[in-house]
Structures are given as C-alpha cells and as structure tokens.
Amino acid sequence: MRRSLAGVALAVTSMVALSFLIPLAALVMSLVKEQGVTAAEQRAAALAPVLALTTDPAALRESAASLDAADHLVVHLPDTGPLGRSKAPAALLERAQRGRESISQEVPHGWICLQPVVLPGEQVAVIENFVPEEELTRGVKESWAVMLFLAVGLIGGSVLVADRLGAKVVRSSKRLAQASRALGQGDLDTRVDPMGPKELREAGVAFNAMAHRMTELLAVERELVADLSHRLRTPLTALHLASERMAGTPESARVEAAVGELETELQAIIATARTPLAVGPMGQGMLGAEPSTGDRAAGNGAPGPRCEAADVVRRRTAFWAVLAEQQQRPCCLDLTQEPTGVGLSEDDVAAVVDALIGNIFRHTPSGTPFGVHVVRTAHAVELVVEDGGPGIPDPDRALSRGSSTGSTGLGLDIAQRAASATGGSMRISRGPLGGAHITVTFALATPSRTGRGPRLSRRRPTWRATRRPRTSG
C-alpha cells in the first residue's frame, strides 16, 4: 500500500509540475527573446538622432561605441558603403530604404532590426542592429535548471509525505489485521490502539467494542451453563435421598451408582464452565467480564421482568420442606404480608432460594434446623436464610467466586449476582440458630416497572409456618 500511495503521489505531482513547468519555460524563453529584441530596437532608435545631425563616419562609430553595440550596429549611408560588417539581407535593406519602414525580423543565427532615417535631400540611411542568437537565449538554460530543480524537489517532497502518511495507514491496518487474526484464533484479550486516519480510528474503536461485547456474551453463556448445572443439583439431591430410602433393596445399588455418575458429570460440567476459556490454537482467551443476572433479567432499555419475591420463596420452601421432613430438619418460614415486588424473574429468585437452601442440605448433617424469612423494608426486600449448622468460618472467602471449600462455589455466587442485579447486596454472619445467617437484599422494583408504588402503610402481622419432624411409633 505504501508503494501504491507513493506512486499515486509521484504521478499526480509530476503531472501538476509539468503542467506548470512547460508553459513557464516557454514564457521565460519568450521574455528573454523579447527583451533582447527590444534592446536592439532601442539602440537603433538611439543612433537615429545622431545620424540626422551628421553623416561623418568617425562620429557615427564613436556614437555606436557609446551604445555598447559597436560590433552589431551598422549604418548604411546612401552615397558610401556600410559602416561596419552588415548581416542584413539585401532584400530587407532595399525594402527599408525604399519603403522607409522599420523592420524587425528573425534571420539565420539571430535577429535583425532595421531603422530607416531620412537625411537632408530626401536621402534615406538605414541603421542596422543585429542580435546574435546567443543573446536571445542568454539566461534561459539557467532559469530552466532552477525550475527543474524546484520541480524535482516538489515531487520528491510529495512522495516522501505520501510515503510517511502511507506508512501510518499501513501500520494501523496491519495492527487491526493482526488483532482480528488473533481474535479469530481465540485470543479474547487482544485489543488495538486506535490510530491513523479517522476511519481507521473508528474501525479500531469498533473492533475493541466488538471484542469486549464478544467476551461478555461468552461469559454470560458460560455462567448460564454453570447456573443451570447448579440448579440441577436440587433434584439430584432429591434423587440421592430417595436412593438412601431404598437402601437394602435390589435396585438401591443401581440407583445409587446412577446418581453418583450423574453427580460426577454435573460436577465436571460446572468445573468446565468455570475454567478460563481457550478457543483455537492459541488458547489465550481469558474471560475478563463478570456477567450479571441483570443481563438475563432485563434487556437494553426494555422493561425487565418482575415478580413477588415472597410468593416465590413460599413455593420453593414448600418444595424443600418435604425433604426437610424426611431428614427430620425443623423448618421455619416467616413471610411478610406487604408487597415484595423485585426486578427479577421468578426463575432467578427461585435459583437464589434453591442455592441457599440446597447448601444447607449439602453441608449440614440431618436434623439441623433452618429458617427462611422475607422482610420488607422501606426500599428493599430482605431474604434471610439461616441454619443451625457449623456456620461459615470465612465469609469473605465464601463470597469469592469458586473459592468455597469442598464445592463449586456457585451457590453463594448466584445469590450475590441476583442481588447485585437489582442494586442490592448480600452479607454472611452467624445467626441465632448458631450457624450461617445469610441475608440477601433485593432493591424494590421502581413504580415505572411495577405499575404501582411501594405501600407505605404499617406492616401487617406476619405468619409463621413450622415443619416439625415426624416421630416414629
């Protein structure tokens, strides 16, 4: 590309230079010639008054010498021969004498000027001034050389500037091409530094935005796979409990093996989804963007979903209460009667409840009590899940994605991202039951999204439902 741009600049500048140089050279030559002829005519005219006063050859030679043209000024007197070496054709001399007209004409090897002068007695003398060809072109070659030098400098400068500009364009294009090739080979971290002309800078900005958006979309897809896989652990837990109740039957071993294999595959899917992305032969694509549940909850500028958090918590707790009864886990449910509209879908809220309660079943022994509470504040809805287990010794580490000991670490992460999507938060402490006390705060949906504002009246009395373990016999 640089060679092409330099060639275009060379061609264009050469044509422009020639279009000016050729007429200018002809003009210079014409001006020099015109100046030489004009000077010859002026010298001939200056000698005419002297000839009108005297025809003495000595006086005429002295006057010609004073005009610095003794070698080229010749006086043709009517009675005597020419005073000097004449180079005028005889026909022109006869024409000037008889016709008494001034003649300025090009002749071989120069230019001739004839100036007739009428003497006393109606006789006619002719002053001849010959201009050699050298004087008609004096300084022309030097002027042409200067103009040629300027033209060459102009062409060289334009080619140099075009080459520098082309180098900048080529450098920007090469970097953009290299970044595109690296992105195609799987390096999702590759970016370009926008440089060069405006169009290439805009292309670089668009490329960076595309790469960033691609990384975000891939991260969302991978986290969605991890979240869905994590949700499958809830029915898997139910299958595991069912297989335990079947202990001692011929089918129990087969069902237990199938459940174990399914749990192993599910764990592998979650681990694969959580590993850094490596696409193509380079294998350097790292997912740097953190997806949020809000990406699933709301589109760009479009009204997002909405649900009543208390209703979803009631349904999901009822599902887990069956398993809690089988494991003799006391379960306490406390729900507010005030509106609990949040800007999440029912599936997202259900995923939070399943993740938190599922962690209790997986990490605490049978018989451990737990409670679920939904509290409405002025601007938020708080979901509290607590248990009587050993608790979480390091809450900060537990909130770090994928760092929970002995698990994939996605349960708390699902809850945290759902809270962040609404502008809320999550905190972990030790509760009255002695174990973990997890509070997930969801911001209330705005009136524009819910169609009604939050109720500001006094809270109604809450109700409590308690599942007590069945006693044998």
Summary?
53% of the residues lie in helices and 16% in strands.
Descriptive labels:
5-stranded antiparallel sheet; Helix Hairpins; 473 residues; disordered C terminus; rod-shaped; 53% helix; Beta-Lactamase; alpha+beta
How would you characterize this protein structure?
This protein is α+β, with helices and mostly antiparallel strands and 473 residues long. The protein has three domains: 2-140, Beta-Lactamase (2-Layer Sandwich); 195-291, Signal transduction histidine kinase, dimerisation/phosphotransfer (DHp) domain (Helix Hairpins); 304-473, Heat Shock Protein 90 (2-Layer Sandwich), CATH 3.30.565. 53% of the residues lie in helices and 16% in strands. It is built from 14 helices and 13 strands. It has helices at 2-53, 57-66, 90-99, 133-136, 140-184, 198-231, 233-245, 252-274, 293-297, 309-326, 346-363, 395-399, 410-421, 447-450, and strands at residues 73-76, 82-83, 103-107, 110-119, 123-132, 307-308, 331-335, 341-342, 370-376, 380-387, 425-430, 436-443, 463-467. A six-stranded mixed β-sheet has the order 11-12-10-9-7-13, covered by helices on one side. A five-stranded antiparallel β-sheet has the order 2-1-5-4-3, with helices on both faces. The model is unreliable at 278-302, 402-408 and 448-473 (pLDDT under 50).
